Amino acid sequence: MRQVAILGIGQTVIDEHWDKSIRDLAVEAAIAALQDAGRETAGGVFVGNMMSGIVNAQNNLGPLIADWAGVRGGDALKVDAACGSGGAALRSGLMAVASGELDSALVIGVEKMTDRPMREVTAALATAADADYEVDMGVSFVGLNALIMRRYMHEYGWKHADFAPFAINAHANAVHNPFARLHHTNPLEDFEKSLMVATPINLLDASPVGDGAAAALLVPAESLRGGTRVLVAGSASATDTIAIHDRPEGLFLSAGHKSAREAYKQAGIGPGDIDLFELHDAFTIISALSLEACGFADRGKGVQLGLDGEIGPTGRVPVATRGGLKARGHPVGATGMYQVVEVVQQLRGECGPTQVPEARLGMAQNIGGSGATIVTHILKKA
Amino acid sequence: MRQVAILGIGQTVIDEHWDKSIRDLAVEAAIAALQDAGRETAGGVFVGNMMSGIVNAQNNLGPLIADWAGVRGGDALKVDAACGSGGAALRSGLMAVASGELDSALVIGVEKMTDRPMREVTAALATAADADYEVDMGVSFVGLNALIMRRYMHEYGWKHADFAPFAINAHANAVHNPFARLHHTNPLEDFEKSLMVATPINLLDASPVGDGAAAALLVPAESLRGGTRVLVAGSASATDTIAIHDRPEGLFLSAGHKSAREAYKQAGIGPGDIDLFELHDAFTIISALSLEACGFADRGKGVQLGLDGEIGPTGRVPVATRGGLKARGHPVGATGMYQVVEVVQQLRGECGPTQVPEARLGMAQNIGGSGATIVTHILKKA
């Protein structure tokens, strides 16, 4: 296998883009990534997207985006792994370049969610779970996460307010990210006063949906001469049961643990070497579980890292350094690529007030469903 | 890149499976492929599917099927390239094994289309085309193909009846395929009397939808000892514009030409060496265009091969040897994998009355949209 580098990145602002179609967003990010890389085209197009068939009446995004981004000719397909689609698409592009099959791959995560009434989007999000044994029983996707959070609080004795630091950190960082959807900060007193979504998850526990696209151009590392190079040092995907009730341990992201362990092994490092961690904070509870699964905290102790002030850009485990899903926004199929683009920005030292000092190793972890598919990437500055 | 072999295959009967869910179908084919290979699990699961989000309220098919087929742990994702999803998923699994990233990959094409009213399925099929510039103008997917067929007849002077041999051959072959949806033969007089769908495409020009799944287990060729081996000798994907009106030549499947040329090159052969060709006969017109794009006939002459009696199992270019999309049935995202499974059956000599004598090299070509994504695989008996 050849080593792969990320040569270019691009992203759109996350917002309700009433004036842009899904193709417009994807093409904007794709062309930005090509320009950033100084390239005009790529050997293939890999699109991460979850719900375009349902909410945009548009499947076949591969050739659509390849066509409109002027990257016609080679592979072009869409990868769906629910909210983990971006990370899974990156991995598909990576294997195409690593195998020698393609000399470059343009990977784009895109989602356009705000064109439809929110009840339809809620139904579309629920297709990430088990349709027959979870959703048809009446539970929504946020409802599943609420069950997990309630159980975690019960099991380990945390209060709801203990989760506040995850939201506060994310909002504080997003203020400095021009691509983020939300730019307001949230003092602690707001956290408890926020509107309830699905108890105990309130509005400040939950990430906002949005429209957006993020992209990266992958090339063989051997093709690059000089300059700062961002290499893919680790890449792994793992699965758990699709339904939460089938898991032996409902509070442990086993697929997160497995894929992180494999990625660490490939990179020859451990969690202590990671300078920043773009985790999948769709809900505050998931931040805690991700930190535990990846070895940054013991079981039931992920929340403590936030309370100890260790998750900010200069803390021991910086997370959501550009705002995370919570405040940058969560256009579901695009999120995994936003995370990777942000890690690249950190390794390049482009993050201004939320720059992690001397960042050399960054990790991105993208989750599909309630922990069913988890994809972990470790990037390295070389 | 490592050479890859197909060690096991499995498939379900194509039908209206009222008593089986999309997971049931996928798991049935997956387990059949594992059993055929004598394996219990695989390193990753790659699912080809187009419309599960729309018609089954179920995305995230990767971990769902991995979970229920007992293949938990590694990669698990869904690939969408519209009706070309099966072929595109095969290619994703192939790259994972060829790159050395996985030691085996279970690729499953699945579609369950008959649970919803046909108007909804028609709308879902149309998501393969350009939503903004084709579908929103009012054209359905069969309507787009009807435009192509009408233009072809006008341009090259063929009558509608000249397309009959494609349907007759497919139906004659499907009679001997226990997995096919349709088991009745169609004499020539029926062809012209058949109900009109979208002029000039009538019911016998068009393939029936259906529910079904087909699967294959991929392993490194070097891991096999002795016995008949089926190797992937060529694999390529190419794209064209998504909308037909943007193509310089609307009657030429340029992505089919490009991907076949690349697959021939990889296999070190030409069209004359192919013993059978499982083409994408969603409509009779597409059979003609595929034969032309892949070098079996000159432009505008594809129809002649049928009229000359050259497309049957003992003809010069056997096509649809197990019934093709036309009579085996076309569960859209599964079709590409049915084609590959059927080529393997031919190379193994398991096709009874429709066995192509001494078949050694077989080709499968899978089309997404009206020629937007075309994936070509060449398999070789070694």
Task: Compile the SSE list and pairings.
Two copies of one chain form a homodimer.
Chain A lengths: L3 E8 L10 H16 L6 E5 L3 H4 L5 H8 L6 E6 L4 H14 L6 E7 L6 H9 L14 H16 L7 H11 L13 H6 L2 E3 L2 E2 L9 E9 L9 E10 L14 H14 L8 E3 L5 H10 L8 H6 L16 H5 L6 H14 L12 E8 L4 E9 L1
Parallel strand pairs in A: 2-3, 2-4, 9-10
Antiparallel strand pairs in A: 1-7, 4-7, 5-6, 8-11, 10-11
Helix pairs in contact in A: 4-13
The largest sheet of chain A, given as strand count, sense and whether it forms a barrel, is: 5 strands, mixed
The gyration radius over C-alpha positions of chain A equals: 19 Å
Strand order of the largest sheet of chain A: 1-7-4-2-3
Largest interface: A-B, 65 and 65 residues
Assembly form of the protein:
homodimer
Q: Which structural category fits the helices and strands of chain A?
A: alpha/beta
Alpha plus pi helix count of chain A: 13
Query: How far is the N terminus from the C terminus of chain A?
Result: 18 Å
Strand content of chain A: 15-25%
Counting DSSP E segments of at least 2 residues, the number of strands of chain A comes to 11
N to C succession of SSEs of chain A: EHEHHEHEHHHHEEEEHEHHHHEE
Q: What's the shape of chain A?
A: globular
Share of helical residues of chain A? 25-40%
Question: Mean of the pLDDT scores of chain A?
Answer: 96
The parts of chain A where pLDDT drops under 50 for at least 5 residues are none
